[in-house]
Amino acid sequence: MVIAAVVLGAAVGLLAPDLGKALKPLGTGFIALIKMIIAPIIFCTIVLGVGSVAKAATVGKVGGLALLYFIVMSTFALAIGLVVGNIIHPGEGLKLQPYETAAGGKEDPTVQFLLEMIPGSIPVLPTLVLALLVGFALQSMGKAGEPVLTGIRNIQAVVFRIMMMIMWVAPIGAFGAIAAVVGATGWAAIGSMFILMGAFYATCALFIVVILGTLLRLVTGLNIFSMLKYLGREYLLIFSTSSSESALPRLLAKVEHAGVSKTVAGIVVPTGYSFNLDGTAIYLTMSALFVSTAMGMPMNLGEQIALLVFMIIASKGAAGVTGAGLATLAAGLQAHRPELLDGMGVIVGIDKFMSEARALTNFTGNAVATFLIGKWTGELDTDQARVALSGASPFDESTLLENQH
């Protein structure tokens, strides 16, 4: 649906530019809905994330090593996104305008009324600070804090359900946003979107093959391409759902079959799904630079570093839910340069095209992390791993069904 809406929006923008520009409120309204949900998502994920950190740290060497590795790798991935974004300057020359300016001051009262119905956004940075304080306070309460954490987990389920409801109207938002941008800038917008998507795919591929592949080879002696082939069925599942969460039970079973101990797999894989989002990290920084350049308000180095630090914290918990990456990107922009949020409509249009690559990179990062930490803690049978990854010892699907009962 989103892909069809993007194509239709681009066609309207090219064939009827004035009509395209008039559709801008559809994109603006969708971004307002995303802004509305940012603070609740940030609050719930950070509070629960702090709880996960403490829980993982209590399981000793494996948990501590996993958290350290995840923080280093996700920071590294965010930095790579910034470097590539600064090299290619995606969005250059688009000069996107907010709705009010684009409307030339003649705002339709009905449109204005409908947009004002959407609740305003809550400031992100104070929410982040409050969430960290609440998280640490609950952690220090021990058992007494567990009912509150359970309550917040239930609230998070409601918040994510609202997020999914908002994503149902994503095709309408994407249609309006793309029609308006293409109507205002013509083929330049389409070219810029393709440049961003191409650069993102290439960066993810290089990250998997060069960075993760080199690490895997140096530490365990295993081949990244053999691992990718071994997890082929999981990649198909992720590609069809756009979420790496769908393959979590299968990854657990498969890494155990490939020689990683049950303890390491049980700690590293679930923790990695919240703390090791390499694909999301690359997406966040590249998309933020795209929006700032397209709006004609490029970020200076200090702002980019501040954004990097914010994203390191805010990206935790952005896995598994469609649209959560989009909400995290909006949170980063709102916290640092609120005026840039009006340029996010273009990202809404191409987010679907990038979500598969994002999920596949997140999944690969977690699979590699499990093998690495297994090796570092002496909990990996390298010979068994080689046999499994070569295909000589095929994975038995029936064992997965047994583990789920």
Strand percentage lies at: under 5%
Helix tally equals 20
- What is the distance, rounded to the nearest whole angstrom, between the alpha carbons of the first and last residues? 36 Å
Largest β-sheet summary: none
Shape: globular
The secondary structure category is mainly alpha
Please supply descriptive tags for the structure shown above.
single chain, 405 residues, globular
Summed up, what is this model?
By secondary structure, the protein is an all-alpha fold. It has 20 helices and no strands. The chain is globular.
Walk me through what this model shows.
The chain is mainly alpha-helical and 405 residues long. The protein has 20 helices and no strands. The protein has helices at residues 2-15, 17-22, 24-57, 61-88, 99-102, 109-116, 124-141, 146-168, 170-185, 187-220, 224-230, 232-241, 248-257, 262-275, 278-294, 301-314, 324-336, 345-376, 382-390, 397-404. The longest helix has 34 residues, at 24-57. The two termini are 36 Å apart.
